[in-house]
Amino acid sequence: MGARADALAAAAAVDESRLWSRQMAMAEIGATAKGGVNRAALSDEDRRARRLMLEWAGDLGFEVATDDIANLYIRRPGRQADAAPVVTGSHLDSQPRGGKFDGAYGVIGGFEALEAITQAGIETARPIDVVAWTNEEGGRFQPGAMGSAVFAGVMRLEDQLGLVDSEGVTLEDALAETLASTPGLPRRPLGHPFAAYVEAHIEQGPRLENEGLTIGAVTGIQGIYWFTVEVNGAEAHAGTTPLRTRRDALKAAVAMVTALEELMADESDTVRFTVGRFECHPGSPATVPGHAFFTIDFRHPDPDLIARISAQIAPTCEAHARGCTVTVRPIMEIPPLVFDPTLIDMVEGYAARLGHPVMRMPSGAGHDAGHINHLCPTGMIFVPCERGVSHNEAENATPADLAAGARTLAACLVDLANQE
Length: 420
Ligand code: HGY
Ligand code: MN
Ligand code: MN
What we know:
Blueprint: H1 3-12, H2 16-27, H3 44-59, E1 63-66, E2 72-76, E3 86-91, H4 104-119, E4 128-133, H5 146-152, H6 157-160, H7 171-180, E5 196-202, H8 207-211, E6 215-221, E7 223-232, E8 236-237, H9 249-263, E9 272-274, E10 278-281, E11 287-288, E12 291-300, H10 303-319, E13 325-334, E14 337-338, H11 341-353, E15 358-363, H12 369-372, E16 378-383, H13 399-417
Bound molecules: (2S)-amino(hydroxy)ethanoic acid and manganese (II) ion (2 copies).
């Protein structure tokens, strides 16, 4: 069989019901009452999710490995044992009230592609790996996309080990426990070479569904910048302290958020500005809050606009400090990026060839592919999700659309794994 015929044969072997039942089995780990999942990075649930992947990999005789940040690799060997692999994958961690598909689909869809390639009896020159990147969501330890950032050398693991979650657990301890939960796995070096990377994901927005399409050939990802803001005032008695002498950290933080909302005002509705965490301490009705903390998630496709507005965030907060001190820390800066044109063409081409209506589209959400794009030709495949709902327990997708994405993925992986 020729390379193209092999790619199409692999796609044809994708099994929609097998893929769906694995998605549902994974969704039981950390299942929430409202039909979503809560699988925080490096938690017990995350560890169970990893063990389930390892069990499936063991059933099919695939090779498994990890690395120093517990990224998990599942390999279908190629003829050339030492050749750089073609890699697919995504993440198994979720938002605290996340859905069944964000991330898990890219790992399980990748695994389905490996099984389909095997079942179709196809040999590839290069190995094909599925990777589950550690801590993509950043809900427990910030920032997100950490496993892929450390792998790509965008971030140093040593600088992250001291991070603590809301319970005071360090990343170092959570990571050690996670690595210990999969004993005996060989460790691969961070940054080991990839020949190419293709990640499948639900769209997390409404465009494909609105257009009646099945596949998005993703052209790139808008810029994502995260900041933390810490406001320190003075705790004081709520009954006796006159308003004019207070240094109320909460009221200052509220004024900052309002001013930032004005700074980000955008008639075209392209700016994305989110304060997803907002805390005040000590959190007692009769004490003026002496400490407040909030996060900023700011996204835009234009690098100049991101840089210009980002530079105004700290001065805007300082201008509304109301006698408190304020510290603004940038914790993630991922500029807008474009994917490899050959891979965009390949995703679009195989989707069309397989009869799946397709369009090119940028990603509004962030993905591990953004960091891996620094290392090798990278692309992404989107499938629709119901009403575009994501980062929500109601997130949903159809078995047929997920299978269409896995077919497109299987074809791309075989094609890439037979290239020089
Ligand atoms: O935040 C993001 O865009 C991704 O879903 N973690
Ligand atoms: Mn995701
Ligand atoms: Mn997400």
